C-alpha cells in the first residue's frame, strides 16, 4: 500500500470521526512541541482549536461533562469509518476526474450586491486612504456572480437610492450652517472646541423650535384673530374694575414717549395679549393657548436636554472605562487628526505634554496627601476653610450689592415716571436729559451684574491656586463657584422682583401704589429680562472687540514679556460655556413674560457665534488644557440641565401662586394663572373629570408607585446583570486576543517550516539535476 493511499485513508477515517474533548489532545501531546502539533494537524486540522488558550481554561469543566460519553462515541465512529473505507477507495479516481472539471468553489464567490456592500463599508474602516484604495481595487477586480431577474432590479433600485441619499447628504453638509467655520475652528483648535460651537448651534436650533411653538399658538392667533378688546371704562362708580384698569394701562403706555413705552404694548411682552375668547366663526381660547404653549415649551426643552444629556453621558461613561489606562489613552489616542495647522499642531503637542504633567502632578499630590502629617493636614484644612469663607463672603457681598443696586435704580426711576404722568413737559430740554438719566438707571443693575460676572471669576482663579488641589479638581471647583455666582445673581434679581410684586392689591385698586407695584408687573419683569439679555450680549461684544482684540494685537506684535503676559489669552472653554448658558437661562426665565424673547435669543445666539468665533480664532491661542469632544458635550449639557431645572421653579411658582395684573395680559381677573386651568377643567365632560380625579387619588397613586418601584428594581437588576456580562465579555476579549497571538505564532512557525522544507526540496532537486 502506497504512502498516498495510507494518508488518504487516514484522512477519510478522520473525516468520519467526531470531535473529541480537549483532554484527549492534552494526553496525546503533553509537551505541545511542533512535531506533535503537525501530527495533530495532519489527523484533523480543526482540532487546533483545542490548543487555544481560551479553550484550555474550560478543560476541567469539559472533562467532567464529557467523560462518560467520550468512549462510546469514539467506538461507534471508528466502526462506521472502517465500513466505508473500501467503497470510498474504489470511487476515488472517478471523483478526482469529475472534481478537476468543476470550478473552484472554495473561494466562496460573492455576488454583485455583496461586493458593493463591502465597498461601501470601506469608508468606515480605520485604515489609511492607500489601504482603502487597495481594498476597493481588489474587490472590484475580484470574480463575482451576477444577479439575475428581480434580484438584479431590486439591487439596482437600492443602489440608486443609497447613492441619491449620499449625494443629498453631501449637498446638505455643504449648505449646512457654519460648516466652513466649524472646519476652520477644528483645524486650529481641535474637536473639543468645535463641540462648544456645535453647542451654540444646537441652542440656536432649540430657540427656533421654541419660537415656532410660541408663534403658532400665541403670536399668530393674536395677530390674525380680531380679539374683542372691549376695555372701555363705562362704569364710573367702579373705576378699578378690570376694564377700567385695562384702559388706564393703555392710556399710560400711549402717553409715554420713550422707547420702552412704545414697545410695552406690543406683542413682544405679556401685556399686549387679550384675555377674551374668540367665538366668531371658530372658537379659540387665547389664555388657554398661552399657558398651554408655555408649559409645552418647557416640557419640550426638558425632553430635548435630557435626551442630549443622556447621549453625552453615555459617551462619557464609555470613555471613563479606560481611565485606568490614562497614559496609554493620552499617548495613543490623544491626538486630534482634524488639526491641519502647523502652529496649532505644535500647541497640541504642548497640550499633550501639559496633560501628562497634570497626570503626574495629580499622582504626586495624591501621594503627598497620603503621606501628610496631622499638622500639615490641619494647616491645609484651615487654609481651605478660610478661602471658602472668603468665597462665600464674596458671593454674599455680590448678592447684597445687586439687591441694593436694584432698589436704588428703581427708586430713581419711579419719581421720573410719576413726574412724566403728572406734568406735560415733553418739549423741554430737561426732559431729554431726564430720559438719558432714566435709561442709565434702567440699565445700571444689569451693567453691574455683567461686570461682576467678569471680574469675580478672576478672583476665584487666584484663590483656588492657594488651596493645593489637583489640576482636574481646580477646574471643577472654579467652575462650580463661577456657576454659583451667575445663578445667584439671577436669584437676587428674582428676589427683588418678588419683593416688588408680591403685595396685596385691594379690590378697589388696580395696583398697590404704596409699594410702587407696576400696573402690569408681568410686562415689567419681561422688560427687565429683555434688558439683561441685551446688556450681557452687548458687553460680550464690547469685551471681545474693544478690550481683548487690542490685547491680542499687543501680544502678537511685541517682545516685551510683561506686555505679552497681559496680552496673551487662552480660549477658556468653561468661561465661554457659562456665557452661552447664562443667556439661554435668561431666555427661559423671561419666556412667559416676553413671549417673543426666543426670537431675540435666535438673533442673539447667531451673533454670539460670530463673537465667540472671533474670540477663538483672532484673540485667543489654543488652550493648554485638553478638551475632548465627548467630555465637553457632557459638561455642556450638565450645566444647561442644572440651570433649566433651577429656574423652571420660579416660573412655575409665579404661574401657580402669584396673582396676575388686573390691567393687562390674558389672565387678568384670575387669582392665579393656574385658576384658568381649574375653570377649564370644570367645563370638561363628567366622565373625563372622573378619570382625571381618579388619577389624583390614592387608589391610583399607590398601585402606580408600587409598579414603578418594581420596574425600577427590575431595571436595576438588569443593569447589574449587564455589568456582569460586560465583565465576562471583557475577559472573553482578552482570551480572544491570546488566541489570536497563539494562532499567529503557530502560523509563523508553520510557514517557516514550509519554507525550510521547500528550500530543502529545491536543494535536493538541484543536486539531482547536477548528477544527471
TrEMBL record:
Signal peptide: none
Domain TMC per the UniProt entry, residue ranges: 520-630
GO MF annotations in UniProt: mechanosensitive monoatomic ion channel activity
Transmembrane segments: 193-220, 282-306, 381-406, 443-463, 483-501, 581-611, 632-653, 691-716
Region listing for Disordered, in residue ranges: 64-88
InterPro entries listed in its UniProt record: TMC, TMC_dom
Membrane topology: Multi-pass membrane protein
Classification via Pfam families: TMC
Protein name per UniProt: TMC domain-containing protein
Species per Swiss-Prot/TrEMBL record: Tetragonisca angustula
Taxonomic lineage from the root: Eukaryota, Metazoa, Ecdysozoa, Arthropoda, Hexapoda
